[in-house]
Amino acid sequence: MQPKILLVDDREDNLLSIETILEPNGYQFVKARSGREALKILLNEFDFAMILMDVKMPNLNGFETATLIYERDKLKHIPIIFITANNYGDENVFKGYQSGAIDYIFKPINPDVLRAKVAVLVELYKKNRLLMEQEQKLIATNRNLELEIAERKASEEKVNQLNRKLLINISNLESANKNLERFAFMASHDLQEPLRKIRMFSDRLLSRYGDVLKDDVQMLTRIQQAAERTQSLIADILDFSKTSIEQSEFTNSDLNVLLKDLLTDMNDEMSDRKATVTVDKLPSLYVSKRLMRPLFQNLIANALKYSKKDVPPVIKIYSDLNNGRNGTDTSKYCRIFVEDNGIGFDQKYAEDIFGMFRRLHGNSEFEGTGIGLALCKKIMEQHNGFISARSKPNEGSTFIISLPVRQGATG
Fold first, then answer.
1. Across 63-70, average pLDDT
2. pTM for the whole structure
């Protein structure tokens, strides 16, 4: 934007002379032919780089006009140079300065002097304007920063409130879960005794009055079977509750020894199914022996249960090491695979099978409570590990146990 200069003189030739001298410098000129006209212009426009004003004018002279101009705060920043043909002496010069002028130019005007003085003031105007723009930008930036800080503080406070509520909810949920687990443990334990009596008295009825009851023998048999299934369910619930409630001792354990003992105990069951179990050498890991035994027992029992008809079960157990995300020893996992040649299942159910009481088959096809794999998942959580499955219908299943090489690395 071209700097604007207000020229004030009652004579047109003087205005034209000044304009001619300064025009090559690219300034924009606004002309007033009296002090009053200058004041009217300044009522609406005040963005002037400077004012060049004649002292001797009718009605309002230059000194009086300057005094009235500087009464307005918006105009106090505009420098005024008086142009005069007379040397008024020091007293009048002082009067001009007192009215607000910053300099004098005497007629006849020296073009070089006029251009030099105007150039200095215009450059000062430009720098002041730039400073004002920067100041406005800084003010706007500070205002935005203040708003951003206020919003961030409000957001942080909301996050803190949500975190506090979340911690309270987590604490309440943990307490509720512990209470539920204790209730399940106590209820399951207390239900064992009446079930034992149901089975015992059913046996006595069958042995004493089997011949007499005849047609009702099947009903008693069903009572016994129902009681047996309920006992099995209660036993599984107890195992699940114990896993959550009881503290486990973790030690550096040889999984080969643990599996050897387990397979010895399951020998009769495997012989009945004509099963073959091969175990590659497994590593020693920091685990709970008390929990790892039911983990392997459930997975092997599942492989036996869901085997194909007239096809002997083949179970393979092997392992490998899987580096974690950052490739350090503390992020390594040992993966143990339990692979079988059973009936398999659709991969879309791979997550569902680890849910509590979740079964893909009815009791008429395969016996079970639907707790075994949920227990396996719970045991893996206790070890800071995880369990997953891969399978296809009629092509067998592979269960993958992932355990941290160094316990606590993922906790």
1. 90
2. 0.47
